[in-house]
Design brief:
L-seryl-tRNA_Sec_kinase_euk, single chain, three-stranded antiparallel β-sheet, globular, alpha/beta, tRNA binding
Length: 297
C-alpha cells in the first residue's frame, strides 16, 4: 500500500536527475508513436522514470477543434502555456519532494487530463486522506532519474525556448528531439486519421517550422535530428546518449545568465513595440536638443 511517508522518503536518496525533452516536428510525423516506444524502452533498459506529456491528449478537444492554420498567438497559444504551468506545479513537487496541489486558476478538464496522464504513467497518485486536489509522488518518480518528454509540434523557436526557460528556472536538464519527416508523408498519414487536420495547416507549418539550430542558438546545443521515424531504431543509441547527457548536465541559472540576457536582448530587438519606443525616444531627444539650441541663441 502506498503511503505519503514512503513516497516522500524516496526523495532523500541523493541528488535528483531530472530533465525535460522537447519532441518536435510536423503533425503526423510519428512523434506520439515514437514517444511511447521511447518511454517504454527507457523504463525497461535504463530503469528511468519517464513521463510522456502529449499535448494533443491533454489540451481539451474543444480548443483543438477551434484551431486553424494561423500562426499561434493570443488565445491560440494560451492553452499550451497553461499546460506548461501545470507541468511546473509537478516539477516543484518533484524538486521539493512534497505533494502536488492543484493551481488556483485552471481549466478543470485540462487539469484532470494532465493528472490522468501522470497517474497512468505511475508518477503520482491521489492522497485519499487529503483534499481531492492534492496528489503524492510515486516512489519511482522520486528515486529514479526522471525524464519528461513533451510531445507537440513546437514549430516556433519561441515555443521551445519557454520550455528551456523552465529548465533553467529549476536547474533541470534540457534537450530536443526533432523528427524530420517529409511533408508528403505527413500529409498522407494525416489524411488517414479519423480527425485529420486541414492539409493547408500542415503546409503552413512546413513553411514556417523553425528547426533546432545549435549553431545559431547556444541553448539548442543539446539537440538531435532524426531524419525519419523509420530511422528511429537506428538512432536509439544516439537518442539515449542525448537524454543521458541532459540528465547529467542540468542547465545552471548562474552559468547561463549571460546567455539568457543575450537571447532576451535578441528577442527584444525584434519586438515591434520596442522599435517604436526607440524611435519615439530618438525623436524626443532630437526635439529637446533643437529646442535647447534655439533657447541658447
Amino acid at each position: 500500500m502506498k503511503t505519503a511517508d514512503s513516497a516522500r522518503g524516496a526523495g532523500s536518496e541523493g541528488p535528483r536527475k531530472l530533465a525535460l525533452c522537447v519532441l518536435c516536428g510536423l503533425p503526423a510525423a510519428g512523434k506520439s508513436t515514437f514517444a511511447r516506444a521511447l518511454g517504454q524502452r527507457l523504463r525497461l533498459e535504463q530503469g528511468w522514470a519517464v513521463g510522456v506529456v502529449a499535448y494533443d491528449d491533454v489540451i481539451p478537444e474543444a480548443f483543438l477543434d477551434g484551431a486553424d492554420a494561423r500562426p499561434p498567438g493570443g488565445a491560440e497559444w494560451k492553452r499550451p502555456r497553461e499546460l506548461l504551468r501545470y507541468l511546473e506545479y509537478f516539477l516543484m513537487a518533484v524538486v521539493s519532494g512534497c505533494q502536488m496541489s492543484a493551481p488556483p486558476k485552471r481549466t478543470e478538464a485540462m487539469w484532470e487530463d494532465f493528472i490522468t496522464c501522470l497517474k497512468d504513467q505511475d508518477l503520482i497518485f491521489s492522497a485519499a486522506f487529503e483534499a481531492q486536489s492534492c496528489y503524492l509522488l510515486m516512489k519511482t518518480a522520486l528515486s529514479r532519474p526522471l525524464l519528461l518528454i513533451l510531445d507537440d509540434n513546437f514549430y516556433y523557436q519561441s515555443m521551445r525556448y519557454e520550455v528551456y526557460q523552465l529548465a533553467r528556472k529549476y536547474s533541470l536538464g534540457f534537450c530536443q528531439l526533432f523528427l524530420d519527416c517529409p511533408l508528403e508523408t505527413c500529409l498522407q498519414r494525416n489524411g488517414q486519421r479519423p480527425r485529420a487536420l486541414p492539409a493547408e495547416t500542415i503546409h503552413l507549418m512546413g513553411r514556417k517550422i523553425e528547426k533546432p539550430n545549435p549553431e545559431k542558438n547556444a541553448w539548442e546545443h543539446n539537440s538531435l535530428t532524426i531524419q525519419s521515424p523509420a530511422c528511429a531504431s537506428e538512432a536509439s543509441l544516439e537518442v539515449t546518449d542525448l537524454l543521458r547527457i541532459a540528465l547529467e548536465n542540468p542547465v545552471k541559472y548562474v552559468e547561463d545568465n549571460v546567455e539568457q540576457k543575450e537571447t532576451d536582448r535578441m528577442i527584444c530587438s525584434t519586438n515591434i513595440l520596442h522599435k517604436v519606443d526607440q524611435t519615439l525616444r530618438r525623436i524626443v531627444s532630437q526635439t529637446m536638443k533643437e529646442a535647447k539650441g534655439m533657447f541658447c541663441q
